[in-house]
Design a protein that fits this description.
The protein has helices at about 25-35, 50-65, 125-130, 190-200, 215-225, 245-255, 270-275, 275-295, 305-310, 315-325, 340-355; strands at about 10-15, 40, 70-75, 80-85, 95, 100-105, 115-120, 135, 140-150, 155-160, 165-170, 175, 205, 235-240, 260-265, 300, 330-335, 355-360, 360. It is α/β, with parallel strands linked by helices and about 375 residues long. About 40% of the residues are buried.
Amino acid sequence: MLGALSRHRPTRLLVTLPSESADDPLFFKHLAERGVEAVRINCAHDDAVAWAKMISHVEAAADSTGRRMKVMMDLPGPKIRTGAVRKGAKGSRLLPGDEFAVVCPGQMDRAPKKLPAVECEVGAALLAAEPGHLVYLDDGKVAATVLATNDWGLRLGVDVCPEGKGYKLKPEKGLNFPDADIDVPALTDDDRSLLPFLARHADAIEFSFVQTAADVADLQAALAQERPDDWRELGLVLKVETKRAVRNLPEMLVASAGQQPTAVMIARGDLAVEIGFARLAEMQEEILWLCEAAHVPAIWATQVMESFLKTGIASRGEMTDAAMATRAECVMLNKGPHLFAGIATLDRLLGRMGDHMYKKSYLLRSLKSW
């Protein structure tokens, strides 16, 4: 499902494609030559014309190198983001102890004028929140508590935000409601409009914001309409991003892997915000255990070697984190100016770590440093 394994390491590499790669066929040849097993197209960006170019470059690279990389296409899903922003009496910058409003679409005028306010693009998220619930903004840069609920939205108090200048409210930033059970279908109308293309061109579909076995069945029914004879040959990647997805993961695995090739992506960005950064390490261990028990491959994702890919200089912590990815079947790298150097470094690192451990088992090889 994730591509033919390289001889250099026990863990496959999945690379997120940058938009500019649509016009750079050599980029794909370089990926294949370096042993990359799969590429990821984020369908929240670009369009079908660009995606088609990327896929044609994958095929051309396969012809010239003999290595055909798998194509993973990522459904955008119902990402809960901020919309329009309105200044309050003191502007739109938040400091600890401040209050602000998060409002339903089109309800900005009903929020108290003295409070800075921001729209939430998914009104159902606000309806599910209750006083005392935590709300996180922009990947956890702001932590707030719901003080009051109204039919127009929420009034919140800021608990934590960046010191000094605080945090300025902005549109198109993520909102997380970890304490609320948000009843939003994972497969949006926009996602459904993409399925004809994805069902024809993808080797596997990455299911964003999937939270229940019913979500899985909903997507499978839609795929059966697009490819009635062979939809079960399509791979499905369950992206675990929320508390609810963690809770329902066993049922989702049965619903998905019982019908088609399945993998689990540990989407550590949103997941860390949802469950708390202190619990992320523990939870990724439990997900790895569950996937191993279910004979389902796991993808170690989000911020892997992030500073290296951006600057060419690695931090100690991120290299240790990357080394632990050898316990998964696949590790995902995002785009960056130092991507190819990052691939080479990760290839060597995972190759060495593969001699020490296989998934959760330590191999207890002889030590060769002395």
